[in-house]
Write a structure and sequence with these properties.
By secondary structure, this protein is an alpha+beta fold. It has two domains: 85 residues, no CATH class; 181 residues, Alpha-Beta Complex (Lambda Exonuclease, Chain A), CATH 3.90.320. It is built from nine helices and nine strands. A five-stranded mixed β-sheet has the order 2-5-6-7-8. The protein has a two-stranded antiparallel sheet with strand order 1-9. β3 and β4 form a beta hairpin. α1 packs across α2, α3 packs antiparallel against α4 and α4 packs antiparallel against α5. It is globular, with a radius of gyration of 20 Å. It starts with 14 loop residues before the first helix and ends in a 13-residue tail after the last strand. The C terminus is likely disordered.
Length: 306
């Protein structure tokens, strides 16, 4: 079991940090607390998705022109250029035009909801949409539950309120949609929306936009969430919060070998844990020189665990 020298000030838990710890406590420590990353890591997909999240709400105006202009402005700041054939200003413009045509006022089944307050964003390097909503909930555990919803929406058919999340992906398939269904994010965002609007939220909706240099696809997918799933999720989240604080206090973070490889986690070919090298040696610090440290993202000013 890896022993570390320091403790951290941990003040919240999110869907991503929850999943990171459940995959492997040591991975959670390296990623969410220490910020270790491989220097050669390719972040173009993350930056592409981040900028698309900012631009997509502008497509509901009836034209993609403003969204494309904003994308080009933000993309120029990344210095990626057109090196990635799938993610670049040309493919983004095609995707945004397609989204604008598919989600025109006449065709879309929902309307965006703008909250009467600004979402918290203390990271000056990242711009966020006016529709994004940050939340911090006391759910009775050792750590509050936090996150950020891309936009609340109301279904036109029944006026029900749902959280919606944009996903940019290389594939738009049944496999992907099934992975979103009843996921921690789907359940957690439904829980948050229930509190924000004082309702029994039915689930979380997704807009999946394909990242491709060949053809454009967009798929709207509502993932229904049941009440018992929310109750179980809260109990698991609170249990994990207690475990995180316990490991932090003891300065030990177990390696969970079931999380090292994609086969043991998912049964299909995918990505291995990016920290596998650190778990291949007796003293993980001997291999830490091959990693860099990134600035940790703070959703709230006083929060610093991811």
């Amino acid at each position: 079991m890896p022993i570390v020298e320091n403790t951290h000030k941990i003040e919240h838990i999110s869907c991503s940090s929850y999943c990171s710890f459940e995959r492997c406590p040591f991975k959670y420590y390296l990623q969410n607390l220490e910020g270790f990353t491989r220097p050669e890591g390719n972040t173009v997909a993350l930056d592409y998705g981040r900028i698309m999240h900012l631009c997509l709400p502008l497509c509901y105006e009836g034209s993609a022109a403003n969204a494309i202009e904003l994308f080009n402005t933000e993309w120029a700041l990344t210095n990626y250029g057109n090196d990635d054939k799938v993610r670049n200003p040309i493919t983004a413009a095609c995707a945004l035009r397609n989204f604008a045509s598919m989600r025109s006022d006449r065709l879309r089944p929902y309307d965006l909801v703008k909250m009467p307050f600004s979402s918290v964003n203390k990271n000056e390097k990242e711009k966020i949409s006016d529709y994004e909503v940050s939340f911090c909930l006391d759910i009775g555990g050792a750590l509050p539950f936090v996150g950020r919803i891309d936009s609340p929406i109301t279904f036109r058919a029944d006026k029900s309120i749902w959280p919606m999340d944009y996903k940019t992906s290389r594939e738009v398939s049944t496999r992907l949609l099934n992975s979103l269904s009843e996921s921690p994010q789907a359940i957690g965002y439904a829980l948050a929306t229930s509190h924000l609007f004082n309702i029994d939220c039915k689930g979380t909706a997704y807009e999946v936009i394909r990242s491709s240099d060949k053809n454009q696809e967009v798929q709207f997918y509502p993932s229904y969430v049941k009440k018992f799933q929310i109750v179980e999720f809260m109990a698991s989240l609170n249990d994990t919060s207690s475990k995180i604080l316990e490991h932090n206090e003891k300065k030990n973070w177990p390696r969970k070998r079931t999380g090292c490889d994609s086969y043991s986690m998912y049964g299909i070919a995918s990505y291995n844990c990016q920290y596998k090298l650190l778990c291949s040696v007796d003293n993980w610090m001997d291999a830490s020189k091959y990693f860099a440290r990134k600035e940790k993202f703070n959703l709230f000013e006083s929060v610093g665990d991811e």
